[in-house]
Amino acid sequence: MLILVTYDVSTETETGKKRLRKVAKVCTNYGQRVQKSVFECRVTQAQKEELERKLLAIIEVTEDNLRLYRLVEPIDKYVKEYGNFRAVDFEKPLIA
Amino acid sequence: MLILVTYDVSTETETGKKRLRKVAKVCTNYGQRVQKSVFECRVTQAQKEELERKLLAIIEVTEDNLRLYRLVEPIDKYVKEYGNFRAVDFEKPLIA
Fold first, then answer.
1. Interface pTM (ipTM) of the complex?
2. Do B72 and A70 touch (CB under 8 A)?
3. Which residues of B touch A85 (CB under 8 A)?
4. Is the pTM here over 0.90, yes or no?
């Protein structure tokens, strides 16, 4: 299945930026980053559960919002994209 | 159909924040805001095209990224949400 992971965190704080980098790092093991806080991941049911478990270990539920959506396929037909993709924080090293 | 609109813009600049507010204002006429830059919209094909047209008039294609995804329904079954939703900019007035 193809899922969309969207993550809402304040990147105005250093800790928020760090959590976003960690979320991105985990998600890119399952798919690709398409926006700063949006990731398309092709997963099995088991992988989806594993991904959720890993993300829940990173996020702060009191401050962040994480959503996982099932997408209609084929993706080429059911997604429309406009503009450029600028992953500003993605190239920076992950500070533990 | 149910679509997800995800919008990537730098909110570190005032003009980016302004565009995000405008995008949010348009999208909320078609659905609801679920994250800072993510909107769930229930639309007909004609409304989808209208929404796209309106959004394209707002965004800066050289700086922003806009994506529209078709979602698998029922949404209750195919979306998982964790954490809180904090729409920080949403309550601020739209400055023209």
1. 0.86
2. yes
3. 8, 65
4. no
- Return the SS3 of A11: coil
* One pLDDT digit (tens) per residue for chain B, 96 residues: 999 999 998 777 899 999 999 999 999 999 999 999 999 999 999 999 999 999 999 999 989 999 999 999 998 999 999 998 754 444 444 443
For domain B2-78, is the CATH number 3.30.70.240? Answer: yes
> What b-and-e string marks burial along A62-84, b requiring 16 or more CB atoms within 10 Å of the CB?
ebbbbbbbbbbeeeeebbeeebe
Q: Which residues are within 8 A (CB) of A77 and not within 5 positions of it... i.e. 6 or more apart?
A: none
Angle at B86 between CA A23 and CA A5, to 5 degrees: 30
| Contact yes or no for A55/A26 (Cβ under 8 A) | yes
